[in-house]
Structures are given as C-alpha cells and as structure tokens.
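Put briefly, the fold is written as integer tokens. One such record reads:
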Amino acid sequence: MSKKMILAAVAATLLAVPAAPALARSAPVAEAPAPVKIDKVRIDAALKAMVDSGRAVGVSALIWKDGQERYFGTAGMADREGGKPMRRDTLVQIFSMTKPVTGVALMQLWEQGKFGLDDPLSRYLPEFADMKVMDAQGATRPAARPIVIRDIMRHTAGFSYGGTATPADAAFSAADPLNLKNDLSEFGRRLATAPLLFDPGSEWSYSAAVDVQALLVEKLSDQPFEAYVKAHILDPLGMKETAWTQPESAFTRLAATYNKGPDGKLMRQDDAETRSLNFDPSRRLTMGGAGLAASIDDYARFSRMLLGEGALDGVRILKPSTVRLMATDHLDARVTERRWLPSKGTVGFGLDFTVRKSQPQTAAENRGAVGEFFWDGRETTLFWVDPVNHLTAVFFVQTYPFDATLHHDFRAAVYGPNYLGPKGD
C-alpha cells in the first residue's frame, strides 16, 4: 500500500481541559415530537438512486428500532467487474468506523481504574513527554501543557494526520508513523518525534490520536491491541466476521473499493491496494483509527450495544454511565477552530463520537435527532445511535473520495426530509 494511500485511508472522512467530566456539556435527550416511521419504499428508492446516479456501485443499510430490525436492503454491486451483488454477508472495509471500537476498548480500561481522563499521556507512554509545537514558518517551541488522555479521545491533542502543506504535517509524513510495517510501539516512537500542530486542548483537528489510544490499550492491558479487542469486544458481542486480519477465504466476500476519477465516474481500485489492510501477512501495524473489515450485521451488533447503553443480549461491554460520557460533548467553548467538523452539522465531539447538539439548521444539513452520536469512514460508510427514537442505523458503501451526499440522502430516507426532532440547547 502506498504511503499516500495509507495516510488517506486513516484520515478517513474527510483550551483548557475541563476540570472534570461534569463540566462537559451533554446534549439533552428529549422525547421526539413525533415518532419516526421507517418507510421501506422510501429507503429502497434512496439506495437505488445512489447507484443509478453513479455515486455508488453498491450500498446496503440496516436499521434497528425499538428492539427490532425494521429495515435491511441493498442496491447495486459489491464487485461490479466480478458480477457480485451487495449481500448481507458482504464484508466492507470500514476505515474510521474502527475508531469507536477502539474508544470502547480504552474506556473499558478506564472503568477498571487503569487511568484517568485528565492524566498526562506521558505517565503511561513516556515518549510523549516534552512535545513541541511547530508554527506555519517551521519554528518549534515547547507545548503550553502536556497532552492528556482526554485529548487523544476528542482530537484536541495537536497530532497530525499528514497530507496538508503545513510544516508540522510535512514532519509527520516524514516520520511515517502509520507505515503498515511499523508495529504500534514503533508507531508511537515515530509519532512522538513529530511536532504538534497546536497546543493541546486549544483546537480540534482529526488525527492519529486514536492510533495512540490503541497503543495505550496495549500498554495498560499488557495484550496486543488486536487480541484485546477480539477478546473483550468482538467475541463477547458475537461479531464473528469482524477483524483486522481476515482469512484468505473471506476475500471473495470483500466489497471492492471504487475511486472517483477525473471524469466523475467510479473506477475499481486495484486488488493489491484493497488487500493490504486485511489480507497482507507482512502487515505489522494494527491501527486504532482504521483497518477493521466487517459485515453489516456485525457492526449493527456493535451499534446496538451502544444503543443499549453498553449491553446487548445479556452481555455488558460498558456501563451505561460510560456510554453516556462518551456521547457527551467534551469540547470547551473556547475550542473555536474545528476544521471540517461543522460540516457534520450542529455538533460537538465526545470521546470518539460526534454528538448532535441541536436541530438541523438548514435543508442541506443531515437529518437526525438531538442527542444522537455517530461516526463514519473514509469510503463513506456511516453509523449512528439515536436514543430519542430508540434507533440505530448502519450504512455500507465503498465510494472514495468521501461523498457526503450519500449520507444526506440516506438520513432523509430514514427520518423523512423535513424531520427536525426535539430541540436542543
């Protein structure tokens, strides 16, 4: 996999720490003014239109509401050239939808008292002591304060993801921490040599911070990250198809990636690029921020666990209070620089989730309910948890670059194009 491709894959979608979690602002969860009715005909038509318009080659969607499956549907092909339709057992590379799984793993260890959210990261990972900030001219200075663990969960640590023209991003790219030949320890050593984009806690910027979370899980659990997640999340939830390392036999069920060319048409990505994350035996890096391949039913089990406030089918993964903490806006009001986060709507950011804070403000904004929390992936995958309507939805597609119109249309089909839901704060 090329260095440029790795950075694009993990980048996905494209001031002060609160003294205690109680200071973070939680979006209120109120009763919806009118019930949401899942309209199969409307959703089927939306999925078909995505394929017919050339924005997607194949899509699938699964919706649970009020404890029951209310919708499953597909349109188009998982592999157009191979003649394979999207199916329920199709595997999809979910890229940054890996991040909430990593966050759940880390918060399990928080529940065990292994760390505090406002502990300095360097207490557990000493390589991240004495971090430097690099300005637009390439000059460096000591960071104003240490990175704390809350920073790596809400993207306020100051880390880069590379791919832009700033000197700090160039230094990150030169360090090459996300090379798949690095293990997580080597990733951490390399990342710690790269300067920060800004002082910790002062801005929001999507970054390699969730890969640092994976390294921290390894350190605190004394287990390889991949093994920890399998033993403590995937296996207990019955997510048998989900893994960073897939058996070779599973490749025939993996959806192809389709990249938009200069003419706007979707072209199939080379298999070598597609295979590199999940089927390359030379891969050493298990990223916390990307890399899982999953079936739609498997990921729905994860999202249903979150809808169940940490439990599913009698298995408890997190405490209800922990899920609510993760789904609370942790961004201080002084964090005004948020890059592209506002493109997700009227949202804040919790611990590895975006959190909706108020009703949609324009017709162009995605439909949804105050109090929902969600995330998406590089190839336009999406899931959300809507406690107001007792609903969770998973949307699978493999379109790159990220196409936000697919999310807009899917959400409008789920809620209805004029849905506003309860008022926020």
Remarks:
- The first helix runs from residue 3 to 11.
